[in-house]
Amino acid sequence: MPELPEVETIKRQLARKVIGKKLRNRKITNVRRRAKLLIIDFSDNSSLIFHLKLTGQLIFNGKPSSSTRKVFYFEDGSHLTFNDARKFGWWKKVKGTKRAEEGFGPEALEVDFKSLKTLFKKRSNTKIKPLLMDQKSIAGIGNIYSNEILFAARIHPLRQVKTLSEKEAWQIFHNVKKILKKAIQYRGTTEQYYRDACGQEGDYLKLLKVYGREGKKCSRCGAAIKREKIGGRSAYFCPKCQPL
DNA sequence: ATTCGGACCTGAAAGC
DNA sequence: TGCTTTCAGGTCCGAA
After folding, report:
1. Which of A9, A90, A150, A166 has the fewest CB atoms below 10 angstroms from its CB?
2. What residue has its CA nearest to the C1' of C9?
3. Confidence (pLDDT) at A243
4. Nucleotide with the nearest C1' to A135 CA
5. Which CATH architecture has domain A4-101?
6. Could you tell me if A71 and A80 are in contact, meaning their C-beta atoms sit under 8 angstroms apart?
7. pTM of the full predicted structure?
């Protein structure tokens, strides 16, 4: 589930709710996001790091359920519930976050066009969709938004990076920013498991143009949306708007 | 360097 | 009504 927009949504909501609260004598000083990691910092310079993987949820004052893996209780009686149906997600307590934050590429919402073009040059032999999802190259984009970005940019997910023109590279850059910002405005996409920190579903599902829409009509041209496995993940695209 | 399959788990939906 | 198969917002590892 959670890609950049979902984790960012949770981060913003939690920041408003838990900064200043105390957990086992330590005060929460900040709530941050790096790539798809959610980081809670404490006054003693320790931190809690979460990765929600596919089905993780972090819900403030969430009612425990069968998928609840951990509940963090604050000194004022409120709590933070970590649910994870598939148990891929994790959390850990660290003394510093430097190690955990290493190895990621620039944040998708912060990378500039020049750096993106440099990356395209360096990774010219790979395919564009797996590259957009590679956290070491650009941090935050996953399967839903890589599909949506490439549809908006009219680029086939299998395109070799070295064949992209300047104009096409710009379209990708432009739509990375545009789609992710819009998805944050809508508090992310709930396909099944995702909930924000208030336990609410995200509203971006209704704006999806290709993800999960195999066989349905393209909103631009009416052709049937296709699904194809690329790099082990389902790529969704319009064969007419995104020709190879 | 890149791609592939499998591994980690559970549960919902679709197929027969 | 079952029983089986497929699929899922992520990442990691080892083998071609």
Report:
1. A166
2. A1
3. 96
4. C11
5. Alpha-Beta Barrel (3.20)
6. yes
7. 0.97
